[in-house]
């Protein structure tokens, strides 16, 4: 059994953070309306297809919402969740592109070729053009569809753009991260460009506006110009709270007592985003949409603990297959929910929103066979059992193979050096290298070296390539049962083999110099012509030269954290 080194926190800490009461919440500051539409009785079936607002935040940690016991103020999210249904068995993917692709397609990333890493700015890659997207299905059902925020699903050809993939309008960025004010994004030294787009044009005139405010204002304008008698779908993919850590000063001032600088800036960004959600909710009420609306809130992956985020008490962070990387904040708020004001432990995955929302819209799913998602609305609205019993977190054949994994360790049916993870029922299996595995409480994140006394570290398992947890009884992944239950390990490995047979080749092409913003007027945007063929077919090796070329500030930080991680690993027993 693992031996743990506790240098500042113990399991007793869970009590102080309120995790024995998952329904804990703070009072809300959202203004009440004169007549609360959530108290009205509704007919068994919706009179009209509901308006759908899907809000996705970026890199928000599992701990970083008020009702999970956070020290960060999120009164709007707390109240919306308290009056709706909190999803406390909700899963996403560990990084940006995979979560977004699975939301938009309803398919695991092994079925779209996006199972490795993210889509990078200079890669001739995008969400496969043969995939029928969620907004396209909603358009078929008569919806007006709009996207505001971060795309990160590729843009090398115009056919890849949001307005070609089902959205009537788009305001946002195409790449993975930009400056919150200038909208500049550098993909290496001298490879910088502007990234804010209105439709298919560069939105130069919007520079200088803080993105969280800009996106909320755009949602309000869309609602003001549309008729609530006609169904609308708005996908709000906030840039917040991804790095760079930037926020208006008045929000930072609220957290001036926080000693940790990164946590202070991060907290300010979360609260600013919370107020943006408040403004969106207010606009839904003001313009007559709210009574017939469904608001879905979701994070895209776990928090980055070295950039202010916290997933406590879960293990791991963004980019890992530990619970801290894949268990997300999620809730649904709607006057149309039959059983409101409760916490749901139904198993839900981000792929489930595709069939769930299309079904709510009375759309047709018969022409999109092979979805990996399920319609979970009865589980959310009525408290029925979830139709989902397992989740393939991923199989990534290109990720660095674990040094100590082998086919022998996988009973001759699976090479345990391959990074993969799956949950079946209450069991979760991980193989290969699952990623950074420590538990990091809040307020211990970037004030090196003094803050590391609060880090809780695992002191064995360095030569392992298989882990098994009863995730229902042990959600913090503290007790590896792989040696005690080899029968369960074998069963879950068999499921991995099953899924792997259905996987398509990885789409991860080499970078193309034609993508340089200098060739596109100084902005990131499509560079390939419509006649250019798909250059990505087949399994590609990772971009080995990338780290050698990048010398930008963020790259130096990544190098620092890699060295720090290596040092911590060497200090383990």
TrEMBL record:
Keywords from the UniProt entry: Calcium, Glycoprotein, Hydrolase, Metal-binding
Keyword Glycoprotein tagged: yes
Needed cofactors: Ca(2+)
One Pfam family of this chain: Sulfatase
Domain Sulfatase N-terminal: 50-361
Matches recorded under SUPFAM superfamilies: Alkaline phosphatase-like (SSF53649)
Keyword set includes Glycoprotein: yes
Highest rank taxon of the organism: Eukaryota
GO molecular function: metal ion binding; sulfuric ester hydrolase activity
PANTHER family registered for this protein in UniProt: ARYLSULFATASE, ARYLSULFATASE I
The family this protein is said to belong to: Belongs to the sulfatase family.
Name of the molecule in the record: ARSI Arylsulfatase
Species annotation: Neopipo cinnamomea
Underlying gene: Arsi
